[in-house]
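In response to reviewer comment 3 from the previous cycle, which asked for concrete evidence that the modeling workflow produces usable outputs, we include below a single protein chain processed end to end. The sequence was submitted unchanged, and the resulting structure tokens are shown without manual editing.
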Amino acid sequence: MNWQDIVVGLLEFAVVLALAAATVRSSLWALDTATPQLDEPEEIRKGNLAVALTYAASLLASSLVVRRVIEPSVFAAKALIATHGWAGVAQALVWLLGQAVLALLLGTLGLLAASRLVHRGWRNIDVQAELAAGNVAVAVVVGAVTVALGLFLADGAAALADGFAPAVPFARARSM
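The workflow returned the following structure tokens.
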């Protein structure tokens, strides 16, 4: 049993748990902001499947962006800890938290802009009115476009986040 691995695993779990909660909150905020005429929680309480589908798509898209940005950061943090021991834990935690904030900002703001474009980009269709009316066909298309945008935004956000990545010295391999 390696106590350092256990502590690092617990820290990683805590950061990821907090990041998951923040991702849910921020993605729902972005959708609420992009659709000011809809009261999404109320529509979902009434059983409006169309609004629920767009909420789910927004959550998936945000999660794709955040996960894509944070995954290499977790690897870099683990490498930092492996090369610096206990002294690297605090540095790695600060690094992970910084990357988590960056991931949330990029994911939330990117999807907010994309959602606004989707809702305003359809001619002759008032997306918010159709969703409020429970039009599942519109919701499926909006949801698919939102997830697709999340996939593309994830790569762009990850490329940007890589620019902030610290150079992590890897332990030299010993030859026998």
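Confidence is low (pLDDT under 50) at residues 169-176. We consider this sufficient to address the reviewer's concern, and the full set will be provided in the supplementary archive.
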